[in-house]
Amino acid sequence: MIKAQIPDIKVLLSTPKNIVIVPHKNPDGDAMGSTLGLYHYLKSLNHNAIVVAPNDYPDFLKWLPGDDTVIKFESETEDSKALITNADIIFTLDFNAFHRAGEHMATALETATALKIMIDHHQQPDDYANFTYSDVSMSSTCEMVYNFIEMLDDTKRIDVKIATCLYVGIMTDTGSFRFSATTSRTHFVIGSLIEKGANNSEIHNNIFDTNSYSRLQLLGRAMTNLKVLPELRTAYITLSQAELDEFNFKKGDTEGFVNYALSLKGIIFAAIFIESAKDRIIKISLRSKGEFSVNEFSRAHFHGGGHTNAAGGRSETDMSSTIMNFISILPQYKQELSQI
Questions:
Q1: pLDDT of 207-245, one tens digit each?
Q2: Nearest partner of 340 among 269, 262, 239, 276, judged by Cα
Q3: Nearest residue to 117 (alpha-carbon basis) of 246, 259, 8, 242
Q4: pLDDT one-digit tens code per residue, 34-77
C-alpha cells in the first residue's frame, strides 16, 4: 500500500529528478487535471517534470494552468520517446494498464527503465508499478493526488494552479459532485482547494459554458437518435461518422451526451455508440445507476472497462451489427436490471 511506501517516495523526491507524467489516451478532465496538478507540485520541488499526453484533448481543457507545457506523443513522437527513455521516474495517472495509453506509447512505457508510480481509481490494475496507489472507492484521480500530497505532508505547497487543476478533475469525474463516489472527504478536499484559490464559479464556466452552435446541433441529433428499451430499463444513443461530420465534430463534443439517456425516468443503464471511421471502430460509453456494473459488462462484451457506474469499450463491427449485438446481450442481464 502507498502509505507504507511514503517514506521511500519522500527520499526519492528529495533530490531533483527527470519526471514524466502520463495520462490515458483521449484524456478527460480528471486525467489532465491530475497530471497538471502533479506537474505543478513536482516543479515546486525543483524536479524537471513534464506531462506527456498520448494524444490531443478537448479545447475546454486547454485553459488549465500548464497546458502550454504539455507534450503530445501522437504529434511529437520522437521528443516524447526521448523524454520517456531519459526519465528517472514515470507517473501514470488515471489509468492502470499500459495499453490505455495507446499501442505505440504503451510500448515506450513498457520498455522504459524509469521507476514507475501509479495513481489511479479504476478497477483491476496491472502490476507494473514500483509504487501503486490504487483505490476504486475514490471519486477521482485528482482527489487521490491531493491525498498523495497530503501523505507527503506537503499540502502547504498547493497553490492556486494546483488547486485549479485538481478541482477540475474532481468536478468532472463526480458529475459536478452528484455521483455516488462523492463523499464527505471529497467535499472536504474541494473546500480546501477553494481555500487555496480555486475559483469554483470560473472553473465551472470554463468547462461547461463553452458550447459551440454545432455542438448543440449535434446534441439535438443525439437526442433524436435516442432509443429506449423500457422492459430492460435501458436507453442508448447512436452517432454515425456522417452525423459527426455534418455537425463539424471536434474532440470532446460528445462529452456527457450519454448522461442524457441515463437521466430518463426508470432508466438505469445507458450507452452511446459513436462511429470512428479513422480508427475503424465504434466507440462505446456506458453509464449505470445503483449496483449494475458497466465495468463488468464492458469487460465481458466490448473490450473495455472502468468503474461500476461508468465505463468505456469498443466494437470492431459496423454500427448496425454493434447495436444488434448489444440488444441481443441485454436479456442475459434482465434480472439484474429489474432488481435495481
A1: 998 899 999 999 999 999 999 999 999 999 999 999 999
A2: 269
A3: 8
A4: 999 999 999 999 999 999 999 999 999 999 999 999 999 999 99
Domain boundary among 176, 208, 240: 208
pLDDT recorded at residue 338: 85
Do 136 and 71 fall into the same domain? yes
Predicted pLDDT of residue 1 = 56
What is the residue range of 42's domain?
Answer: 2-208
Strands (E) in the chain, as ranges, are: 18-22, 48-53, 71-72, 89-93, 115-120, 131-134, 227-229, 234-239, 269-276, 281-288, 305-306, 310-315
Residue 3 has pLDDT above 90, yes or no: no
Q: How confident is the model at residue 10 (pLDDT cuts 50, 70, 90)?
A: very high
Give the separation between CA 305 and CA 120, rounded to whole angstroms.
Answer: 14
Query: How buried is residue 245: exposed, middle or buried, by Cβ count under 10 Å (0-12/13-18/19+)?
Result: exposed
Rg for the chain, CA atoms, rounded? 20
Q: What is the CATH number of the domain that holds 96?
A: 3.90.1640.10
What mean pLDDT is reported for the chain?
Answer: 96
Residue 340 to residue 315: CA distance in whole angstroms: 27
Q: Are residues 57 and 196 in the same domain?
A: yes
236 and 270 in contact (C-beta within 8 Å)?
A: yes
Q: Which residues of 281-315 are buried (b: 16+ CB within 10 A; e: fewer)?
A: bbbbbbbbeeebbbbebbbeebebbbbbbbbbbbb
pLDDT confidence of residue 2? 78
φ/ψ (deg, to 5) at 27:
-65, 140
Q: In this structure, what C-alpha cell is assigned to residue 142?
A: 485528482
Both 149 and 46 in one domain: the answer is yes
CA distance 39 to 37: 5
| 80 and 186 housed in the same domain | yes
Q: Give 176's DSSP letter.
A: T
82 and 175 fall within a common domain? yes
